[in-house]
Amino acid sequence: MSVLFSSRIAALVARAQPTTLYSYQPGRLLRFGPWGLSAVFAAYGASFALSSAEATRVIYTEEERERAAEGPWYMAPTLLLFGRGSLSFVLSALPFAVAAAALYVPTRVVLRLDYLPGKVPQCRVTRWGLLGRGRTDVVPLQQLRLRTQRPVYTGVGRQGVEDTATSSFALTNGSAGALQRHYLCSRNGDFWGGDGRVMDALFGGVAPRELDGAEAPKPGSAEAPRPTTAPSAQLEQLLGRADQRAKVSSRAAKNIVRQK
Description:
This protein has helices spanning about 5-15, 30-65, 75-105, 195-205, 235-260; strands spanning about 20-25, 110-115, 120-125, 135-140, 145, 170-175, 180-185, 190. The two termini are about 45 Å apart. Strand 2 (about 110-115) and strand 3 (about 120-125) form a beta hairpin. It has 2 domains: about 5-25 and about 110-245, no CATH class; about 30-105. Strands 4-3-2-1-8 form a 5-stranded antiparallel sheet, with no helix packed on it. A 3-stranded antiparallel sheet has the order 5-6-7, covered by helices on one side. The protein is of the alpha+beta class.
């Protein structure tokens, strides 16, 4: 007899010890690819900036030499120099922006996601670091949400998360700034219990009992549970019960210590 998914979620939030919800081991592409891509675009940006600056200087010199009479004010060589220089600066900045993004995006890739029980349930997010060392953020569970309304669980594959449209999904920290708000999770990672429904239940606002079926409806269908931006009422109840049990256990432990 199989255990209902909602019962497993209830047991998960009732645990007193941290639990790993998701883990991912990146390949060599993530380790070395960002550096190579960033170097290519940085070199291209530097080359374009130097060549455009030289071309702008040469054109300005020729216009100053050949100017025989006063023309319209908007054809003044100095004004044209400013316009060409501004355009060259903008076009040169684009490759450098791509180079910076190539180094920034990998730092948002999640390597490990742990559930931390407590009075205020939290999640410990370990993400990729450019120098090989993971960076850790601790985020309140209720602040961590799926970025889109597309369910993580598709019912396809070993863990039920395979999707032909996307190879990853994003989590959003509602309490963080713009650059620290989003996290990227690969669908090739390992999910708690080998079941991707845990992401929809904890971070998608889908009630665990809605995910109790053997198969999940196809994403986009009318029957598919739609993730929301707020925790489900059932999850709120489970977390509340876990908090009450934690308080009772804490009081019992204090009474035992006092009796001794």
